[in-house]
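Could you join me in thinking about how sequence relates to backbone shape in a protein? Label the sequence line and the structure token line clearly, so we can match residues to local backbone shapes. Once you have written the record down, we can walk along the chain together.
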Amino acid sequence: MATMLDPTPAVDWIDRDRHVSEGLDQLGIQVVSASLYGQLLPGITNVTDRARYFSFYPWILHSFAQQAKPTDGRLEWLTWFRSLEYAYAAVCAAWEDENGEATAVVGVDAARKALRKSGAREPIDLLKSAQLNAEGKVPAGAYFKNPEGGFGQYYKVSLTTLGLMQEDRQYRYPDRRLTRYAGERLASAADSQFRELLNAAGKRVSVADLSRLGEKVGPAAITPDSDEETLLRALFMGDDDNVCQGQPRDTRLARRASLRLILRFLSDCAEPVPAYVDTFRWACSAAALPGHRSWQLDRDMETTRRQWAAYHDNDLMNVALETFLWLGMRRLENRPALPRSLAQAVVNLIREGASSPLKGIATARRVGDWIESSARPSPESIDTTDPNATRTWSENLLSAVDDQKDAEAAGWAARILGRLGGPRRNDEVPISAFGAVGDVYEVHRDALRARVERQRAESFSRFMEQLVLEWVIYRHLRVATRKLANQGVSTFKFRPEEGRLIDIADRTPEPGLTSPRLRQAFRILADLHFVELGDAGATLTEHGRALVART
């Protein structure tokens, strides 16, 4: 908890509106990884969980246009949309509860709550949680706060990116219209699957009928080789010039390259891959497969692999820097500290934690010594049985954080930074290759590398002290100030008071990789029957193997 210098301080300028958030990106570095991700896999985000929504939402727009003349009436559109989206959540939740499967459906938590409240014998009211109040606003207790539900919150931009919809400035509600070459075709292809929802939406329906319908329309129920699946495959894989004509060429090619790399990865692994998201990321970073094998790819796929390596390595750098933030905050729990004194305390922990696995840091006098002692092995492994693998170092770091072994965590974080800050290898793609990313953001993997190169002959301790001061302590204050100014939300974990820093966090945030956004890509590939996700991990299906063979 916070330690106060004055028991009766003046009004806190940070808590001006009492709107405090824990925040997810304390140093503003994860946003770089998110920007890289958006360029590598456009249209698939951290919240676009299932392929079927890319046909379900066009079908809702299609069915609305058929039942009434286009209108700018807000109430008509939202009533129509919300009743169908919530009905979809309810039928999927009923089927899921009966079969014990996870569907990742918008509004499923509210639907499950309604199912539990009603019991197996009572019909479920599909209107109450979906309807607006008398003022046309979303009431408390509704299945989704956004008036346009998961469509407006999660999928609208992605559907437009994939060329299924276009902005329709003539109408405010809905403000999108389907494209003829993709959106209308996909809505028509899925019509026979979803039509029964029209009879269920806004009514009281038995649990048995909900479950039966959920089996038919759920995210995992795309019929193999159907028109719906064929069109969805063409959209995501970018294989049909006509269907994909609404997608910018660069986004279409980037997504196709990334999805095909995932399929190639599973093919080259041969055996089921547990922890497939993390393993894929590490494979891209190290150009290695499980079993101490190097990953050999042709030129085009190698380029994509290197791009994902830049994404992952930037994320890993953020973990190391967030570890220093965590360590500094743990020092502030006991008493306030001057910023430079806090940075010095973190550097002392690095030296203290330089035990035998980290002895290169213990003896490092110059920045160059640190970099050389942390260099990547060649070839590199991703197997955690290899004590010198970057993946092993990362797991050691996170284990030390979990066990609250501060000195060990500091040592491993410094070792990882030293590895990432080394000279660029021939097989690495610079961040600057991703367009404006390197110009817009001041802290990223290549900025660390440039900083190391400029100061290679300088004192290691002085270099780390300044790095912690600028890229961790001051940076957190700048990022939190920017969020407060732009969003009116306080994410400060400590604050300055008479030149010293004071801990004000209810909880000290622990370091970790950004949300595993690639999980959605694997799941969509599974929905389209290219991949099977089972208890043993991810494997290719017959369709997936055939696509890899053609590639």
About this structure: Residues 530 and 542 are 7 Å apart (CA to CA). The beta strands are 124-125, 165-167, 176-178, 204-205, 288-289, 293-294, 494-497, 500-503, 531-534, 537-540.
